[in-house]
Each structure stands twice: as structure tokens, then as C-alpha cells.
Amino acid sequence: MAVTKPRNRVLIFRLTQDEYEALQIASSGARSLSEYARARLLAPPAPSKIDQQLDEIKSTVARLADLLEKP
User: pTM for the full model?
Assistant: First the structure.
């Protein structure tokens, strides 16, 4: 993927050796550790389990409301 904007900002944070090794394992297949970290940090958040459960409850309530409205 071609970079259209220069990356001139730096973010630094410290990891334990175990965290670093876990990150290396998780990033296998990525071009670099930085590319992997950037992709994970900037990706839209995945819906949480509670959000999925709330969606299911809303759907169920809507279906029940439809059934109660029918003659």
C-alpha cells in the first residue's frame, strides 16, 4: 500500500518483554510491527459483546411488539 501522506509524528510507549513477544507473534504476516500496531490502533472498534446482546434484545422486543399489534 502506497503512503500518500508522510508519517512525521511519533508515538512512544513501553512494553514488557512478554508484551513485546506477544505483539511480535500477533503481527506475523504484517510488513512490520509498526504497520500492525497502526492498523490495530486506527481500525474502527469491533462491537462489544454487550452491544451485540443489546441489538438482539432490541430485535426481539420489536418482533414481540409487532406480534402484539397484529389482530
Answer: 0.55
| Domain spans of the chain, in order of start | 17-69
DSSP string, 12-41: -----HHHHHHHHHHTTTSS-HHHHHHHHH
Per-residue buried b or exposed e for 28-61, using 16+ beta carbons within 10 Å of the residue's own CB: eeeeeeeebbeeeeeeeeeeeeeeeeeeeeeeee
Closest CA to 61 of 47, 46, 69: 69
| Total Cβ atoms within 10 A of residue 26 | 13
Which residues of the chain are under the pLDDT cut of 50? none
What is the tally of helices (H) and strands (E) in the chain? Answer: 3, 0
The per-residue pLDDT for 1 is 57
